[in-house]
Amino acid sequence: MEKKYVKLQTEIPGPKSKEILERRNQFVPKGISNNCHSFVKKAQGALVEDVDGNIFIDFAGAIGTINVGHSHPRVVRALQEQASQFIHTGFNVMMYESYINLAERLANLAPGDFDKKVAFFNSGAEAVENAVKIARKYTKRQGIISFTRGFHGRTLMTMTMTSKVKPYKFGFGPFAPEVYKAPYPYVYRRPEGMSEQQYSDMIIEQFEQFLLAEVAPETIAAVVMEPVQGEGGFVVPDNYFVKKVKEICVQYGILFVADEIQTGFARTGKYFAIDHFGVVPDLITISKSMGAGVPISGVIGRTDIMEAADVGEIGGTYSGSPLGCRAALAVLDIIESENLNDRAEKIGARSIEKMKQLAERFECIGDVRGLGAMCAMEIVKDQLTKAPDKEGVGKIVKSAGERGLLLLNAGLYGNVIRLLMPLIISDEQLEEGLQILEEAFEAVYQKDSAVPARTGRM
C-alpha cells in the first residue's frame, strides 16, 4: 500500500526533537510521562508534524481528547473570536452567555426525561471530584463506590477511586477515606468453562455480596462507573450488568454517576456511551473531547441533585472558561453537522475488522473488543493462559511510532493497544494507519526490524 500521508525525513526522534528532549530532561520531572519523544510543530485533522518535519497519523487523539480532530477550523475560529472579545472574567465575577448556552445544550442532549442543570470545571478529575461533592451533599452520605480497573484521575479523591496502583497510586498515600472498589465484568478473563450469562450473574452476585460484606448500601452516596473502562483496557460491560447496578442504586437511594470523560462526545457512536445501555444516570461527568484540546469539564445532573450545593460551594477561578465554553459549543456543532456519531460507528467497524484479521495472523492477540470507535486489542504471551504481554505492547507502540503512527497502550497489565483516532480521519488516513499497525506487528513478531522510508503530505 502506497503511503500518502506519513512522511519520515529523519529517525524518530529527529535531531531537533533530541535537542529539545535534553532540555526537557533537565527541567521537567520524570514523573510526567511521554509516549512519543518527538516534539510537535503543527497538527491538523488526524495528522501531526514534528519539529523535524516528520508527519504522523494520530491514533492516540491526545488520549481521547481530539474527537473532532486537531485544530478544527470551526474551533479555531471560535477561539479567535472569543480571544478578541475577552479571554477571562471568571464566571463567578462576571458571567458570560456562552456558559449558559453550553449548559442548555448539554442539558438537552443528556439522557433523562427530567430537568437538568450543568456546572463546569477544568479537568476530568475535577468533574469527578465535584460529582462526589454534589452526591455527598445531596444524599448526606459519605461512601463512594468505584470499580476494579477504573480510572478517574490523579487528584487525591480520584486517585483513591482509581484502581491501578502503579503508576498512579504507589507511594502517594494515605488516600481519601470511604472509597470502595466493586467488581466490574471482564468477559475475556472470565473463568474457563463459564458462559457469558453465568459470568454476568456471578459478577452481580459479587456486587450484592460486596454490599453485605464490605459496606452498608445505606452509607453510599454514589456509584461511579465508566460505561466503557478507558485506562482499564477498553473493557465493555454487558447491558445486564449496567442495568442491574442501576437497579441496586435505585433500591438503596444511591446515585448512579456515569464517568463519560473518555467515552463522551461521539467516541462510541453516541453523545454519551451510557445511551448504549438503556440506563439514565443521575449525574454525568464530562471532559476531554468536549473542548477539542481546550481545558474544560463538567457535571450534568438532575436539577434537585445539582441544587444540593449551596452558593459558593462548587466552581473555581477558571471553571467553565470563556475559551472552553466556545470550543465546546463548536465541538457540538461539528458532531452534529459532520455526523460524527455515525462516523464513529464506521471507523469502529473497520478497525475491529482489521484487528480481527490481525488476530488470525498473530497468536499474540488474545482479544479484540470495542464500542463504536473505542477499540482495542489485548496482547498475550499465550492464548490458553492469557498471560499479559506488556513488553510486546511496548515494542509494538515503539515500532508504530518509528513508522509514523501515534499509538497508546492501556489496561491493568499494560498489555492492551487502544485506538483513539480523531473521528474526522479520512478513510485513506485510517487505512494507512491500520496498515502501519500491521507493519508494527510484523516487525515485532516476525523479527523484521526494517523501517521503510515514507513520503507524504500534510
UniProtKB/TrEMBL annotation:
SUPFAM superfamilies: PLP-dependent transferases. It catalyses: (S)-3-amino-2-methylpropanoate + 2-oxoglutarate = 2-methyl-3-oxopropanoate + L-glutamate; 4-aminobutanoate + 2-oxoglutarate = succinate semialdehyde + L-glutamate. Its EC number is 2.6.1.19, 2.6.1.22. InterPro entries: 4NH2But_aminotransferase_bac, Aminotrans_3, Aminotrans_3_PPA_site, Class-III_PLP-dep_AT, PyrdxlP-dep_Trfase, PyrdxlP-dep_Trfase_major, PyrdxlP-dep_Trfase_small. Keywords: Aminotransferase, Pyridoxal phosphate, Transferase. Pfam families: Aminotran_3. GO terms for biological process: gamma-aminobutyric acid metabolic process. It comes from the Bacteria. Signal peptide: none annotated. Its cofactor is pyridoxal 5'-phosphate. Pathway: Amino-acid degradation; 4-aminobutanoate degradation. One of its GO terms (molecular function) is (S)-3-amino-2-methylpropionate transaminase activity. PANTHER family: AMINOTRANSFERASE CLASS III, LEUCINE_METHIONINE RACEMASE. Belongs to the class-III pyridoxal-phosphate-dependent aminotransferase family. This is (S)-3-amino-2-methylpropionate transaminase. It comes from Neobacillus rhizophilus. The gene is gabT.
